[in-house]
């Protein structure tokens, strides 16, 4: 059963994740979160200057993660009717294969910044 967007099972404080990333990852290194959820680890990685790749199978959480990472990157929020709902989540739920690129765009964004 997939989690509902209103109840996240493993909420992690961003400052704690920054501390743990700093202990285990070299400056500018790559952080992989295979169970991204709402992207607390991703926000911490971006805030600390690390590159980030996140994987999330739940479209609702993925939409929340996209919005939080865009905010961490100081990008404008997505145009969305629902709170925490991004175009990416809506496209995935609609099975629109034209939007699959959003699932890997964070790595592309981070590589451009560190190039």
Indicate the structural class.
mainly alpha
Contiguous runs where pLDDT drops below 50 for at least 5 residues: 80-86, 99-112
Number of domains: 1
Shape: globular
Strand content: 5-15%
- Compute the average pLDDT: 74
User: In which range does the helix fraction lie?
Assistant: 40-55%
Count of DSSP strands = 2
Measured distance between first and last alpha carbons: 40 Å
Question: Major β-sheet, in short?
Answer: 2 strands, parallel
Order of helices and strands, N to C? HEHEHHH
The protein's oligomeric status is: single chain
Radius of gyration: 14 Å
User: Can you list the strand order of the major beta sheet?
Assistant: 1-2
Specify the number of helices. 5
Explained architecture:
With 115 residues, this protein is mainly α. It has one domain. The chain has helices spanning 14-24, 40-47, 59-72, 87-93, 105-114; strands spanning 30-33, 51-54. The chain has a two-stranded parallel sheet. α1 (14-24) packs across α2 (40-47) and α2 packs parallel to α3 (59-72). The longest helix is centred in the middle third of the chain and has 14 residues, at 59-72.
């Amino acid at each position: 059963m997939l989690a509902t967007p209103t109840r996240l099972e493993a909420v992690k404080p961003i400052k704690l994740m920054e501390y743990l990333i700093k202990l285990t990852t070299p400056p500018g290194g790559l952080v992989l979160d295979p169970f991204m959820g709402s992207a607390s680890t991703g926000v911490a990685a971006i805030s600390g200057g690390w590159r980030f790749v996140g994987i999330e199978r739940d479209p609702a959480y993925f939409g929340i993660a996209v919005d939080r990472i865009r905010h961490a990157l100081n990008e404008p929020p997505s145009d969305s009717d629902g709170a925490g709902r991004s175009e990416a989540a809506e496209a995935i739920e609609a099975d629109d294969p034209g939007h699959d690129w959003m699932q890997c765009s964070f790595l592309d964004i981070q590589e451009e910044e560190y190039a």
